[in-house]
Amino acid sequence: MKKILVLNGPNLNLLGTREPATYGHETLADVEQLCKDTGKSLGVEVDCRQSNHEGQLIDWIHEAGREIAAGRMIGVVMNPGAYTHTSIALHDAIKGASVPLIELHISNVHAREEFRHHSYISPAARGIIVGLGVKGYALAIEALVRVSS
Ligand code: DQA
User: Fold this and answer.
1) Among the atoms of ligand 1, which is closest to the Cα of residue 79?
2) What superfamily in CATH does domain 3-148 come from?
3) Is the pLDDT of residue 149 over 80?
4) What's the gap in Å between 118 CA and the centre of ligand 1?
């Protein structure tokens, strides 16, 4: 069974209590369960990880690149959190490791503050899902399966 890696970046461990009007009431554990259930229904194994540290996220993207090259992984779904708007290093990691990646945001970043309108991740992403709440994670997993088959 092929795998998909779901990465959540900084502050997403606070889901459920963090600004619920913007991010909803579901916790990270709820989101990870949704991802695993979605994967199961599509015949893929979903591995979920979260880190508040940029370097850790980069290491996981490199690891995903090796798994993809070995034919064991389809790609990555990533909510990079605020690193979306700051991290050239994450952009370079995605490109450097040749990872098909769906960038995901729970909120509609384009309807929020101007500093959220620019993404360093988008030019390196295979596709983008924005503003559909946590259900976007299920859609991103399905999208990755569909575009890679
Ligand atoms: C976010 C949007 C980012 O601007 C923010 O920094 C986050 C979460 C989202 O899921 O809507 O941490 O990626």
Assistant:
1) 13
2) Dehydroquinase, class II (3.40.50.9100)
3) no
4) 12
